[in-house]
Structure formats: structure tokens, C-alpha cells
Design goal:
With 251 residues, the protein is mainly α. The chain folds into two domains: 41 residues; 204 residues, Biosynthetic peptidoglycan transglycosylase-like (Penicillin binding protein transpeptidase fold, Orthogonal Bundle). The chain is built from ten helices and four strands; from the N terminus they run ααβββαααααβααα. The strands form two sheets. It has a two-stranded antiparallel sheet.
Length: 251
């Protein structure tokens, strides 16, 4: 009996060692994989210097002598505006629905990633979102994914995380928000909050109301599906969800 117990104990110890070694090997491979992406083996990643000097195309505006906008020339309909032109309720709407811990993380929201991973992988809930922060979304806006097949989604996500960390070290939170709102797509070749405000509400960003801000921010989840002109009822429901998120975050 004593020999059997010892034999069973030894088998358990041996199994635990194998499992531990397997986990250690997987962790080492994961670190090597991250390192290979970081040094550019899966495609170039912009340096901090390149990130500090990026530029984006904008529309040329045509005004009358009394400063009335009468037309635009563009490849990308984008009219950048300064942070000071963003109403407070616009920032609140964006943070509340897209990245409620924006001011707490440094580019990557670990809590959100764990939540999404648990719901998606273990519970099979594909509606749990992607766990991307606003900084990661900015990285995707500045450097769009060229390859959309599933084999590259992990590489793309890791790249965006690395770029997001570098963006956070290069820019302030206000600057990240400014760049995000000036680069994000609202569909139909419309880029940036100023162009979207003019297109959908015929008003400047600085003058949009809280419901209008919530409508535009709500579109970011699906620019076509929540387009207020094409799907007014779906857009209204999404707008109300954004307003509820603002309320829940004490905005």
C-alpha cells in the first residue's frame, strides 16, 4: 500500500512538472512572439519620432467674402479642429461609451481585455466588443490594417497595442482625444468630428448639442448601421444608449 501511494504521488508530481513546463514554454513563446512584432518581423511599426510628426490629409474649404462656407475640395473630407472646440459633452459621450477608463490606463486597458477574453473565448459571446482603448483605435486610424484575414488579427491587435503605448508616451490625453476625433471615420468618406457635424447636423463641432454629440459618437460602433439619415430609429436607440452610459459614468 505504501509503495502504491508513493508511486501515485510521484506520478502526480511528474504530471505537475510537465504541466508547469508546458505553461512556461507557452509563456516563453508568447514573449518571443511579442518581441518579434516589436522589432518589426511582422511588418514595420512607427517609432516615437514618426508618431510625433504624423500628418493627415484635410479638405480645402472655400468661403465667401463674409466667411460663409460654400464648398470643399478633398480626397478625404476632413477638417481638423482644436481641443478647445470640443464641447465637454462630446468628450464625455466618447469616453463613456468607448473607453470609460481612458484617463486611468496608459494605452491598454487590461481589465477590458480580460473581460472580453472571458466572454468571447469561454462564454462564446461575440457581442462583447474588442476591448480596444481610444488610443488603440487612434493607432488603427493612423495606420489602417492592410490585411484583414483572421491569421493576422492577433498580429494587428498586438501592433496597435505597441503603437498605443508609444502614443501615450508621446502625447497628452487631450492630444490623443484631439487626434482621435480628427481622424475617426464616420463612413461615406467623412473623417473627423467637424466634417461629421457639418454633414449630419449642418453645424460646427463647437455648437453641437449633447443629443447630437451622442448620435455622432454612437455611429462609431457601426457608421452605416447607425447612420441617422438611413436608419433613424436604430440611430435613436444607439444615441439613448450613449446618453445612458454618460449618466452611468456621472457625466
Amino acid at each position: 500500500m505504501l509503495k502504491k501511494k508513493r508511486s501515485s504521488t510521484n506520478r502526480k508530481k511528474g504530471l505537475l512538472k510537465i504541466i508547469g513546463l508546458g505553461i512556461l514554454c507557452l509563456f516563453a513563446l508568447f514573449i518571443l512572439f511579442i518581441g518579434s512584432i516589436n522589432i518589426g518581423l511582422w511588418g514595420k511599426i512607427p517609432s516615437k519620432k514618426e508618431l510625433s510628426n504624423f500628418q493627415y490629409q484635410m479638405a480645402s474649404e472655400v468661403f465667401t467674402a463674409d466667411s460663409v462656407l460654400i464648398g470643399k475640395y478633398y480626397l478625404y473630407d476632413r477638417q481638423p479642429v482644436a481641443y478647445e472646440d470640443f464641447p465637454e459633452h462630446l468628450i464625455h459621450a466618447l469616453v463613456a461609451i468607448e473607453d470609460e477608463r481612458f484617463y486611468e490606463h496608459s494605452g491598454i486597458d487590461i481589465r477590458s481585455l480580460v473581460r472580453v477574453g472571458f466572454k468571447t473565448i469561454l462564454l462564446g459571446d461575440n457581442s462583447s466588443g474588442g476591448g480596444s482603448t481610444l488610443t488603440q483605435q487612434l493607432a488603427k486610424n493612423l495606420y489602417p490594417r492592410k490585411e484583414r484575414n483572421k491569421t493576422n488579427i492577433v498580429v494587428n491587435k498586438v501592433k496597435e497595442m505597441i503603437i498605443a503605448k508609444r502614443l501615450e508616451k508621446t502625447y497628452s490625453k487631450k492630444e490623443i482625444l484631439t487626434n482621435y476625433l480628427n481622424t475617426v471615420s464616420f463612413g461615406d468618406n467623412t473623417f473627423g468630428i467637424e466634417s461629421a457635424a457639418l454633414k449630419f447636423f449642418n453645424t460646427r463641432t463647437k455648437d453641437i448639442s449633447a443629443p447630437q454629440a451622442a448620435t455622432l459618437v454612437g455611429m462609431l460602433k457601426a457608421t452605416y448601421g447607425y447612420n441617422p439619415r438611413i436608419f433613424p430609429e436604430k440611430s435613436l436607440g444607439r444615441r439613448n444608449l450613449v446618453l445612458r452610459a454618460m449618466y452611468n459614468n456621472d457625466f
